[in-house]
Structures are given as C-alpha cells and as structure tokens.
C-alpha cells in the first residue's frame, strides 16, 4: 500500500527534510495590516518578527480553507492508497477538523487525520516518523500505532519571554502583564487536554530554562531513548548555545533546533524558548 504524509506549516519541518521524505505541507496564514501571508511560503520568520516588533497591532492567524485540503487530497489520491495527515492540536486550531472534513470528501484514498495535540517541531516528530515509515512501505495502521506510542512519551514546555505580547493578544490582562514584568515572571506553558495552559510561573529567564531541563532530566533518568528539539522565537544564537550545553549534559539524547514560526510566534511572542521531546 502506498501512503502519502501531509502536515501543516506549524510543524516547521525544514523544506529540504520535507522534500527528502516526500512530505506534503498545507500552510496556515498570518494577517498583518490587512494582508494575508502563508507562513513558510509568503513570509519568512525573520521578516515576521520584524513586522511585529515595529507594528502597533498584533497579527491574527487563519487556518487553511477546507478546499485546499480537498484539492491536495484529491491529487494525492491519484497515486496513493492512503493519506496520513498530521496537524497541530485541535484545541487551538480548526486545521485538524478541516483535514477530517476534506478527507470525508475523498473516495479514491483513505484519509487518516491525526491530531498531534500540540504543535511546532514536536508535531514534526510525528510527521517525520510517519513519512519514514511510509517510504518503507508500512501500513497506515502500523504507522498510526507508532505515533500513538510516541504520544504517550511526548512532552513539550515553552517559556514566554514577553508578557506584554500575551496581553496584546488578549490572553493576559494589562494588570497581570505589568505585575509579571515588574517581577520578571517567565511563565512556563505546556499542552494539556489539547490546549496551551500555564505549567509554572518562574522568576527569571535562566531559572525558567533550567526548570525545563529538570523536566527533561526526569525522563532521561527513566532510561528512555529520547529525541529532543529546542524551539526558539528569533533567538538562534541562544538556541545553539543551549543545544551545545544539553548535548554535553545528555549525550544519549538526540537534539535538534527548530523555531516558532509566524503562526505560533503570533501567540507566544519573540524571545520565547521551548523544549520538546519524545522517544525515538
């Protein structure tokens, strides 16, 4: 059975990796000053953060139209028997539901929409594994079973650097943002029941990042064979430095570097950092 693998742009898988593994991508968009930009296609992550930094209004985000899914699925159905479509959490976007609805319209291939229940390169881990197995000729049921096993071990934590950004997005009151900034609070967030919720409030950026490492350490000590990704919002140098430190501390863990692109960056803000991991 031939299986195609589809994802959305918020998995932030590098283009050369998508091409090497034949991964198909549907973009989400950001709307800036009334203009819509498809992330990974119409706007670079660097240009996005420059726009946000210099603008007075926070961008908005939009999910892909169902028609884009239907068109892609119909085209893939000409050459594939099955389609596995992996997307960001259904708790923060309707993208997954769009893939489900479009899949129901396709008759010539079986579409399996998969809710990653999170986003960014942690989501990308599922996509890359699915695509690798698909190229090996594995059946969809076997691929989905492996993704479900990965999900049992998936953890991801994000540190928000700029509370005023959350406040501008309506996710924090002005008073909370002011108090938090004065106290140098760096909230840790994570996905719970498919939505982003606070995990802990920590003073200072360094302590917040150290707390994330403590959480990673708990799983490393359990003897799990882990892959991890450092995710940054326009802080590549810091991400590289952190990766070097973590690689020395945990040589048994496979580390990579990814980023918060425009859609997720809209909600978290520049300077945010995250770490996600699961079993290899």
UniProtKB/TrEMBL annotation:
Glycosyltransferase recorded as keyword: no
Keywords: Lipid-binding
Superkingdom of this protein's organism: Bacteria
InterPro entries from the UniProt entry: DegV, DegV_C, DegV_domain_contain
NCBIfam families found in the cross-reference section: DegV (TIGR00762)
The protein's name: DegV domain-containing protein
Source taxonomy: Bacteria, Bacillati, Bacillota, Bacilli, Bacillales
């Amino acid at each position: 059975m031939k299986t195609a693998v589809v994802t959305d742009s918020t998995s932030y898988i590098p283009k050369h990796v998508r091409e090497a593994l034949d991964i198909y991508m549907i973009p989400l968009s950001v709307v800036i000053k009334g203009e819509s930009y498809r992330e990974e296609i119409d706007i670079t992550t660097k240009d996005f953060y420059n726009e946000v930094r210099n603008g007075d209004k926070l961008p908005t985000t939009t999910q892909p139209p169902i028609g884009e899914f239907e068109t892609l699925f119909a085209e893939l159905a000409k050459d594939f028997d099955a389609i596995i479509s992996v997307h960001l959490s259904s708790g923060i976007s309707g993208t997954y539901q769009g893939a489900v609805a479009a899949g129901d319209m396709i008759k010539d291939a079986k579409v399996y929409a998969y809710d990653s229940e999170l986003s960014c390169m942690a989501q990308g881990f599922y996509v890359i594994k699915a695509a690798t197995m698909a190229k090996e000729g594995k059946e969809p049921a076997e691929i989905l079973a492996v993704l479900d096993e990965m999900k049992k071990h998936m953890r991801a934590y994000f540190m928000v650097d700029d509370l005023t950004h959350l406040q501008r997005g309506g996710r924090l009151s002005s008073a909370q943002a002011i108090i938090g900034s004065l106290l140098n609070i760096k909230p840790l967030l994570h996905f719970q029941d498919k939505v982003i919720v606070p995990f802990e409030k920590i003073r200072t950026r360094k302590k917040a990042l150290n707390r994330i490492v403590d959480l990673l350490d708990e799983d490393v000590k359990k003897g799990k064979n882990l892959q991890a990704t450092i995710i940054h919002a326009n802080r590549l140098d810091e991400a590289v430095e952190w990766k070097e430190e973590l690689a020395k501390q945990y040589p048994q863990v496979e580390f990579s570097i990814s980023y918060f692109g425009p859609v997720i960056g809209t909600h978290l803000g520049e300077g945010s950092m995250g770490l996600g991991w699961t079993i290899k």
